[in-house]
Amino acid sequence: MQTVVITGGTDGLGRGLAVHYLRQGARVVAVGSTPAKGKALLAEAAAVSAADRAVFLRADLTSVAAAEELVTTIETTCPSVDKLVLCAQRYRLFGPRTVTSEGFEHSFALAYLSRYVLSHGLRKALESAPRPVIMNVGTPGVPLGRIHWDDPQLTHGYSGTKATLQSFRANDLLGVAFAALYADSPVSHVGYNPGVVSTDMPNHLPAPLRVLTKAAFALLATSVTKAVAPMVRLLDEPPGERCTAYRSSRRLPLKGPAFDQDAALRLHHLTQDLVTGAKP
Ligand SMILES: NC(=O)c1ccc[n+]([C@@H]2O[C@H](COP(=O)([O-])OP(=O)(O)OC[C@H]3O[C@@H](n4cnc5c(N)ncnc54)[C@H](OP(=O)(O)O)[C@@H]3O)[C@@H](O)[C@H]2O)c1
């Protein structure tokens, strides 16, 4: 039986994938921070006769310690992991800079560090599966944002947009570094941009932007059911190359600073130091 681990598996795209794989007979481990959402997913699993294959793990992935604890829990309860899907995200485009209890800027911690810890931490469990794949869901192919090498925690000149875009670019580099570091690993790392998808995401935005985003979503957004279909195809038939990027079904060239190998390895080493010390 396949094991599919999905962060953000209790809502939006992650939930869509969780329900799909439960229906397909896989064991699904869904991670989220809200117990009520986990309970609702388990109820849906029971409704499709998959209660014995559905697991909800509550974790606040803004915390490196929580992400590491999650790795340990998954390693000790799952003999192998076939698919790791990284969807946990909460945009903070406005408002003041906030810092986690471990001292990291919020977007850096949730949208990037947790994905770094889970990708590297679960590598061995993934390598025990026949066709392992990591799908890192974000915005590859969007030419915005950069790594602020001299101040990645954005202690100076912070803006929520800057932090969010930095976390996206960091995830592009995470895939490149992963492939460079483990060239002989069978794990396929897919950076994935789903396009505009109608999820709960706008409800977490501040009021004026929420209204605008919802209006734009009503015109432009794909449903979760439709958006999940090309994701499933890639997850079930991962590309042969170790690192790839897609926007929906379209393969993206790994060109430009977002996919630069030197920058990727530089960020890897910087992150390794941060995670080891668990402080910026
Ligand atoms: N929707 C789009 O149009 C779109 C476009 C481009 C890229 N994406 C990317 O697709 C991915 C999924 O987005 P979505 O729209 O499906 O999001 P969503 O509907 O808002 O779901 C986000 C998920 O992340 C979890 N989460 C948030 N904060 C967390 C925390 N601190 N710890 C653990 N889990 C946490 C949420 O669970 P809790 O609420 O329980 O914490 C929820 O399950 C994201 O990476 C996003 O950047 C989405």
UniProtKB/TrEMBL annotation:
Query: Which UniProt keywords are listed?
Result: Oxidoreductase
Keyword Oxidoreductase annotated:
yes
Q: Does the keyword Ubl conjugation apply?
A: no
InterPro entries for this protein: NAD(P)-bd_dom_sf, SDR_fam, Sec_Metab_Biosynth_Oxidored
Please give the name of this protein. SDR family NAD(P)-dependent oxidoreductase
Q: Which organism is it from?
A: Streptomyces pulveraceus
